[in-house]
Amino acid sequence: MPQPTAQNDQTRASRSPHPIGRRLVAGLLAVHTAAWVLSAPAAADGRSDLLRQLAGEYLGATAVVLFATATLLSTRARWLEPWFGGLDKMYRAHRETATLGFALLAAHAATTPWRLTSPGGVPSGLLAFAGITVMVALALGPRLPVLRRVITIGYGRWRILHRFVGIFLIMALAHMLLVDAVVHAMPVPFAITMAAFVTGIGAFLYSLLLARLVRPRRAYTVTAVRRLNDATVEIGLALRRGRPLEFHSGQFVFASFRRRGLREPHPFTVSSAAHDPHLRLTVKAAGDFTRRLPDRLGPGVKAVVEGAYGMMDYRRGGPDQVWVAGGIGVTPFLSWCRDLTEDPGHRIDFFYTVRDRADALFWDEIVAVARRHPRLRPHLHVSSEAGSLTVPRIVARARVDPASTEVYLCGPVPMIRALERGFRDAGAPAARIHFEEFGFR
């Protein structure tokens, strides 16, 4: 956890002190819209279809602003992470802005009057629209049952293709400059749209050419690959050169390995403690990439680790806490447990729910940590024996008041959604229920 090919259905806890990113995006759209409304009367040039032209161009320009925002968010810029409350929320905002941008782009194509007077304008616009349509379909494929049957491209190949979405932004820029557009006579909207193009194309070029040089990356070597069960492995990593990775417990990294089929960076939670000189990644094999790991990795294989990312930190929470881990979602909590070198200062009830007892990886270690820290109370829940873990069961066993308890969740999305609703119904404020979603596609 997190793994886009193996654990897109995993969700984990997170908290950010001031996530203002969405409000900034909304404010940008408001300024953009106001500029069009205030500039529109000055653009009247005698066209009989002026209103339709303005509406179509506004939709297209707004789509550009949204696509530029989405491209910027996809850069994984760490300075943006606190604004959105974590990298997961950045990617979520990326998906939402790109999807809305595509909807507005389609409306732009349907609304704007077609004029074939500019030889390059229409073809470049059509190519941009077609390319973005394909990219959106590939991104939404795993999430929509209708597309899932048709689109079977793996995360690694999709990620490579997704890098080049900026090419279609360049085509869209050519389209805007070549067509006979009303916005050319509207200085402020034109300037905002051009600034969006520069931002989006700049973010694209940064990701393509500079990101690998700028992002914090460390050289590691695989020291061990240990099978924990048929579907889970633990990868040990030792620093090869340079300074060790800086992270706090519960964060995740992007790791790639010098082996065929494993060179594309994938995200994994670091399950070792922050003070441990060696890294440990606990990986569930479910997607193409993660299924290949046990067979292709071994001691001595070189790895590159980028990060760390994530806003998850239980130390920011209140004195009474409930942690709930489902399956492989135990990894960030395991990192927290391994990092406990003194009294955590919180009263923590840690619920670990698994299908069968054989799936309760690291349970003995968690119990051993709890013996050293009496304020940490572990609870193992085996769903094949006791049914699903519910909020009433959690409240009864932990003896907590949901209204004043910090809740951290990590596991399959259906479980998280059910527990989130249950805690809300039990009186827990939304601000006290923390989880991150890891679907990077």
TrEMBL record:
Cofactor(s), by name: FAD
UniProt KW keywords: 2Fe-2S, FAD, Flavoprotein, Iron, Iron-sulfur, Membrane, Metal-binding, Oxidoreductase, Transmembrane, Transmembrane helix
Transmembrane portions of the chain: 20-38, 58-77, 98-116, 122-140, 160-178, 190-211
A GO MF label: oxidoreductase activity
Domain FAD-binding FR-type: 215-315
Keyword Protein transport attached: no
Pfam families: FAD_binding_8, NAD_binding_1
Domain of life: Bacteria
Keyword Glycoprotein tagged: no
InterPro entries to which the protein is assigned, alphabetical: FAD-bd_8, FAD-bd_FR_type, FNR_nucleotide-bd, MRET, OxRdtase_FAD/NAD-bd, Riboflavin_synthase-like_b-brl
Protein name, as recorded: Predicted ferric reductase
Originating organism: Glycomyces sambucus
